[in-house]
Amino acid sequence: MVFAPGQLPNLEDITARHPGLRIVLDHLALSGGSRDAALGPALEPVLAAARRPNIAVKASARPCNVTEPYPFPSLHQHIRRVVDA
User: Which helix (H) or strand (E) holds 25?
Assistant: First the structure.
């Protein structure tokens, strides 16, 4: 499990060279700085990494990416995109 915001291209290279290595991207590999409207574009590298069968994600601490209160309705669409990918 790694927390590596901004490092997905490197991790994709590693997983391509080592297909038996499983990597879990903690916190969707996102920093807390991607909030609200910036969250969608920030997820694009994560969605692209979904093509690698040995990359998985953990979607923890994501309420820090939205400024609205619980139940964080705008976050749901982003989590759905990740699950679908």
Answer: strand 23-25
Task: Provide the pLDDT for residue 72.
Answer: 96
Q: Is the pTM of this model over 0.85?
A: yes
Find where tokens 């994600």 sit. 57
Sign of CA dihedral 49, 50, 56, 57: positive
What pLDDT was estimated at residue 32? 75
pLDDT tier for residue 36 given thresholds of 50, 70 and 90: very high
Structural domain boundaries in the chain: 8-84
Q: Reduce the DSSP state of residue 56 to 3 states and report it.
A: strand
Task: Give the strand pairing for 55-57 and 23-25.
Answer: parallel
Amino acid symbol at 79:
I
Q: How far apart are CA 31 and CA 79, in angstroms?
A: 15
